[in-house]
Write a structure and sequence with these properties.
The chain has one domain (17-268): TIM Barrel. 40% of the residues lie in helices and 17% in strands. It is built from nine helices and eight strands. It has helices at 33-43, 55-64, 87-99, 120-136, 149-158, 175-183, 200-208, 238-249, 253-268; strands at 17-22, 45-53, 71-76, 103-112, 141-146, 166-168, 187-190, 214-216.
Length: 270
């Protein structure tokens, strides 16, 4: 029996996919970034959303991807770093948003009560400031919510974000949470853990979600799907997530891949 792992480019998916959430800056990709981008394109990925955690990362990304127009930027301060969301930091990000049309969304922002590195009250304040920035510049918001679903919903609804363009990054919830997200007019992005055997509830949620609300992400270098779980993740591995999503929905993988890519292009206005 042939036990060789099928490589991403061997799935033959069309060049219509979008990797909606990647962290390509830093040490994980320093040695082979160009090869990573080539593998992504060979796998059928036409655009990559690189998340820049603050102004310094945005400047690094501008330089690194100056000749890579398929990479667009998502700019924000991670909830666990909310203590750095100062007036000066917000003003600098605002200037970058005005000057750089490749910034397509604000984020990832939200609440993270799993890690105890930043007090909740500081996270709440930074979250609301990010939402104000998105509102001011009519940009979509990319949400990070970990162990904080109810609190995240409360802030979003208090701030009047029901019906506004919002992407629930790295969705890992059940069908009830999915329904609350889509009922508010929002989108959800499915990561690699949908391939894990224990994640039946996530597969059920992805199967029941409206097709026009689904995006695909890797959150690389984290959350690597099977068959490479435990190794560094990269954008090309989004094909395994797409396969699992398509299987859960009884769809052709290429159809799912293109639909999710179309959703991303519309959401980010690519």
């Amino acid at each position: 029996m042939d036990m060789r792992i099928k490589q991403p480019h061997e799935f033959g998916l069309p060049l219509t996919g979008v990797e909606s959430h990647a962290h390509l800056l830093g040490r994980h990709f320093r040695s082979d970034l160009r090869k990573v981008l080539e593998r992504a394109q060979a796998a059928g990925i036409s655009a990559i959303g690189n998340v820049c955690m603050g102004s310094d990362e945005l400047e690094e990304g501008k330089a690194l991807f100056a000749d890579t127009p398929e990479v667009f930027f998502i700019l924000g301060i991670h909830p666990t770093d909310s203590q750095t969301c100062t007036d000066e930091a917000l003003a600098r990000m605002e200037g970058q948003i005005r000057a750089n049309p490749r910034i397509k969304a604000v984020g990832e922002t939200g609440l993270d009560f799993y890690w105890k590195t930043c007090p909740p009250e500081i996270q709440h304040a930074a979250f609301r400031r990010h939402l104000a920035l998105a509102r001011e510049y009519s940009l979509p918001v990319v949400i990070h919510s970990r162990d904080a679903t109810e609190a995240t919903f409360k802030v979003l609804l208090d701030e009047g974000f029901s019906g506004k363009p919002l992407l629930w990054h790295c969705f890992g919830g059940d069908s009830a949470t999915m329904r609350s997200i889509v009922d508010n007019g929002w989108h959800l992005s499915i990561p690699g853990p949908i391939t894990f055997p224990a994640n039946a509830a996530l597969r059920e949620a992805a199967a029941a979600a409206p097709l026009d609300r689904l995006l695909i992400e890797t959150d690389c270098p984290y959350l690597t799907p099977i068959p490479f779980r435990g190794k560094r993740n990269e954008p090309a591995y989004a094909v395994y997530t797409a396969q699992a999503m398509a299987r859960s929905r009884g769809m052709d993988p290429a159809e799912l891949w293109t639909a999710a890519g179309d959703n991303a292009r519309k959401f980010f206005r690519l």
